[in-house]
Design brief:
single chain; alpha+beta; Beta-lactamase; five-stranded antiparallel β-sheet; about 20% strand
C-alpha cells in the first residue's frame, strides 16, 4: 500500500472512533458470542451500579430505625428510668422471714408443758413438749414451717394439730415479721434491715395440773394392762369454775415424735395401734353409760312427781311384762340381784335395775316418766349435745328415742322394753366422759350446768337447770350412801368424803365385754371437784374396774395433792 493510501485509512479510522462511542458489550464477550455461559448464574453478565432510588430508600429505612431506637432509648432511660432503677435495686434485695415464737404452755402451777428451743441452722425454734404422761391429748402437737428444694418457704407458719395447740392456735401462734437483706452479685449479704418485727404468741396457763394428770393416766394404764381393758379415760373438773384439772386418755401419742416427724417407725406404730392412741376418749369416745344414767332418771321421776324419795319398790330380781304380740308369753327384765324393798336413796346406792325400770317405764301400779321424760332430763343435764370444751372432735352421743329407733332399725316400733333398757343406760345410749363429769358437777353444785374450760382463771360460763335443790340433795344422799354401803364402797376412806355412782354397761353382740364407770364428787359436804372415769371394754365378770382407779387417785391426793382434799 502506498504511503498516501495508508494516511487516508488511518484518518478515516480515527474519524470513525470520534463519531461513535464504543459500548462495553461491543468489546467483551456475551451470551451471543459464547453460548456456553450459564445465564441462571449470571455468567456472561456485566454488573450494573446500584441505582440512586435504591440508595435513597435504604437511607430512609435506616433513618426510621434510628429514630425508633432513639425514642425507645428515651422512654427507658428518661421517662421510665426511675422505675427501672428501683427494680434494679430490688433485684439486689432478698426477703427473710422473722419467725414468731409460739406462746409457752404452762400447767396451773406454772410448770412448762410446751416451749421453744432454737435449732442451729433453722430460722424458727423447735417446739419441745414435756415428758410427763397424761397430757398429750390436751396439748396436741404442731407441724413446722416447710420449704421447697430451693430453700423457699411455701408454708411460713406453724400448724396447730389437736389439743390446745389447735384450739388456741390464734392465741399462741404470734405473727411473723419480715427482714430485707442486701446482697452483692455473689449473693453475699452486705446489709440488712427489719421492715416488720415479729410478734411472739401469747403464753397460756392451763387449768390442768400435770402431776394429777400423770397420776390418773398411770392408774388407768395399769388397770387396763392388769385387767384386760382396751383403754380408759378420766377427767376431774372444778364444780364451781368449770376448770378441768386432769384430762387423761389411755393410750396416748407422743407429741414430740409427731411434731418432729422423723421417727417414722414410732409414728406408724401409733397409726396401726388397735387401742387407738389418737382417740381422745374423754371428749371423742362414745360409750354405753350403764347405771350412771339412773341419776338423772331419778331426778326426772322426783321432778315429775311419779314417785317420792321414801316410797319403796320391791326388787325380787326381775320383772315380767306380757309380750305384746305373743299371748301367754312374758318378756323378762332382770336386776343384777334381788335387792328387796328399796327407796330412791337405796336404789341409787345399790343400783337396783327393777326400781329404775318402774320409775322409767312404769310397771303395774307404778307410773314412769316414759321415754320422752328420759330424753328431756338427759338433755337437761347436757347429754346428747357438745359441752363447749375447747378441744376438737367432741362427740355428741345418742339418746335413744322412738324416732332414733325407727331411723336406725328400718322403721321398727318403740316398745316398753326399749324404755326399760334405756332407763338403766343400755340399748342405744352413748355418752362421753366429759358429758358425764359435767352432769355430775351440776348435781354437786345445785343445778349449774358448766361449760368445761382448760384455761386457768379464764372465767366461768354456766346455765341454770330448773331442778329443785331438795331433789338434788336426795340424789347426792343416794350417791353418798353408795360409797358407804353400796356399789361404790371402794371409795370409802378417811382421805375425803366422796359421793359416787358406779356403772357397768354390757357391750358387744354377745355381751362378753363391759365398760366400767365410776363418777362422783368430793368433798361431800362442800363439793368442789367432780370426776368421771371409764375403763373400756374389759372382760365380763372382772370385779376390778374404774372404782379402783379412783381409789388410787384419792390415795395419791392424800400424799401429793392435799390442796384438793
Amino acid at each position: 500500500m502506498s504511503r498516501n493510501r495508508l494516511r487516508k485509512f488511518i484518518k478515516k479510522l480515527f474519524s470513525s472512533v470520534e463519531s461513535h462511542e464504543i459500548e462495553p458489550d461491543e468489546i467483551f464477550l456475551d451470551s451471543s458470542n459464547l453460548p456456553s455461559f450459564d445465564t441462571s448464574q449470571f455468567e456472561g453478565r456485566l454488573e450494573h451500579p446500584i441505582s440512586k432510588n435504591t440508595i435513597l430508600a435504604f437511607g430512609i429505612i435506616v433513618s426510621l430505625l434510628m429514630v425508633l431506637f432513639a425514642a425507645r432509648l428515651w422512654n427507658l432511660q428518661v421517662v421510665r428510668g426511675d422505675d427501672f432503677s428501683i427494680k434494679s435495686e430490688d433485684n439486689r434485695l432478698t426477703h427473710s422471714i422473722l419467725f414468731a415464737e409460739r406462746g409457752v404452755i404452762y400447767d396451773r402451777n406454772g410448770v412448762e408443758l410446751a416451749w421453744n428451743e432454737e435449732e442451729e441452722g433453722e430460722q424458727f425454734s423447735r417446739r419441745i413438749y414435756t415428758e410427763s404422761l397424761g397430757v398429750s391429748h390436751v396439748l396436741g402437737y404442731v407441724g413446722y414451717p416447710l420449704k421447697d428444694s430451693a430453700g423457699f418457704y411455701y408454708r411460713d407458719y406453724f400448724v396447730g394439730k389437736d389439743g390446745v395447740e389447735f384450739s388456741l392456735n390464734e392465741m399462741i401462734k404470734g405473727e411473723n415479721g419480715l427482714k430485707i437483706v442486701e446482697v452483692d452479685a455473689l449473693n453475699t449479704p452486705k446489709s440488712e434491715s427489719t421492715i416488720r418485727s415479729q410478734i411472739d404468741g401469747e403464753s397460756v396457763d392451763l387449768s390442768i395440773d400435770a402431776r394429777l394428770s400423770e397420776s390418773l393416766y398411770s392408774l388407768i394404764k395399769n388397770r387396763a394392762l392388769e385387767s384386760g381393758f382396751v383403754g380408759g379415760a378420766g377427767v376431774v373438773m372444778d364444780v364451781v369454775t368449770g376448770e378441768i384439772l386432769a384430762l387423761s386418755s389411755y393410750p396416748e401419742y407422743d407429741p414430740q415424735v409427731l411434731s418432729d416427724g422423723e421417727d417414722k417407725e414410732t409414728i406408724a406404730s401409733f397409726v396401726e395401734n388397735s387401742r387407738k392412741p389418737f382417740l381422745n376418749r374423754v371428749v371423742s369416745g362414745l360409750y354405753t353409760p350403764g347405771s350412771i344414767v339412773k341419776l338423772f332418771v331419778a331426778i326426772g321421776a322426783l321432778t315429775e312427781g311419779v314417785i317420792t324419795p321414801e316410797k319403796r319398790i320391791l326388787s325380787t330380781g326381775s320383772i315380767r311384762v306380757p309380750h305384746p304380740y305373743i299371748p301367754d308369753t312374758f318378756s323378762v327384765f332382770n336386776d343384777w340381784k334381788a335387792h328387796g324393798l328399796v327407796d330412791m336413796r337405796d336404789a341409787l346406792a345399790v343400783s337396783s335395775n327393777v326400781y329404775f325400770f318402774e320409775i322409767g317405764g312404769g310397771f303395774e301400779g307404778q307410773s314412769g316418766i316414759g321415754i320422752s321424760g328420759i330424753e328431756e332430763y338427759a338433755k337437761l343435764f347436757g347429754l346428747g349435745a357438745p359441752t363447749g370444751i375447747a378441744l376438737s372432735d367432741e362427740a355428741i352421743g345418742v339418746i335413744p328415742t322412738p324416732e332414733w329407733k325407727a331411723e336406725t332399725f328400718d322403721g321398727d316400733d318403740w316398745r316398753l322394753g326399749d324404755t326399760y333398757n334405756t332407763s338403766i343406760g343400755q340399748y342405744g345410749f352413748q355418752v362421753t366422759p366429759i358429758q358425764i363429769v359435767r352432769m355430775i358437777s351440776a348435781i354437786a353444785n345445785n343445778g349449774r350446768l358448766l361449760v368445761p374450760t382448760l384455761i386457768k382463771d379464764g372465767g366461768t360460763r354456766s346455765e341454770e337447770i330448773n331442778v329443785s335443790d331438795i331433789n338434788l340433795q336426795v340424789i347426792r344422799e343416794g350417791m353418798r350412801r353408795g360409797v358407804l354401803s353400796g356399789t361404790a364402797t371402794a371409795l370409802n376412806s378417811n382421805i375425803v368424803d366422796v359421793a359416787a355412782k358406779t356403772g357397768t354397761a354390757e357391750v358387744g353382740i354377745r355381751k362378753k365385754f363391759v365398760n366400767s364407770w365410776v363418777t362422783g364428787f368430793f368433798p361431800y359436804e362442800d363439793p368442789r371437784y367432780a370426776f368421771a372415769i371409764i375403763m373400756e371394754r374389759g372382760p365380763t365378770g372382772n370385779p376390778v374396774g374404774a372404782a379402783s382407779v379412783m381409789r388410787g387417785l384419792l390415795e395419791w391426793l392424800s400424799i401429793y395433792g392435799v390442796e384438793y382434799i
